[in-house]
């Protein structure tokens, strides 16, 4: 899942070295925390949060297609 998130975010940002993804297993769910450079944050969130919502939808759909037993969440943090 980390590779998928990285693949989706890389074309959106200018500073690819600043992409950080941390996986946290919280029992019944897995949370992926994505952080990017401050100047790229707006590009990842998108107008009205549309890009962030699309990223979350793709992560959720991929998890469902892989029959993940746990809930998958993508958080965008600074």
Verbal overview:
By secondary structure, the protein is of the alpha+beta class. The chain has helices spanning 2-9, 41-45, 50-65; strands spanning 20-25, 29-35, 71-77. The protein has one domain (2-77): 2-Layer Sandwich (GMP Synthetase, Chain A, domain 3). The protein is 37% helix and 26% strand. The chain has a three-stranded mixed β-sheet.
The secondary-structure element order is HEEHHE
Radius of gyration: 12 Å
CATH class: Alpha Beta
- Strand content bin: 25-35%
How would the global form be characterised?
A: globular
Structural descriptors:
globular, 3-stranded mixed sheet, GMP Synthetase, Chain A, domain 3, alpha+beta, 78 residues, 3 helices
Summarize the structure.
It is built from 3 helices and 3 strands; from the N terminus they run αββααβ. The protein is globular, with a radius of gyration of 12 Å.
Secondary structure elements and their pairing?
Layout (H helix, E strand, L loop, with lengths): L1 H8 L10 E6 L3 E7 L5 H5 L4 H16 L5 E7 L1
Parallel strand pairs: 2-3
Antiparallel strand pairs: 1-2
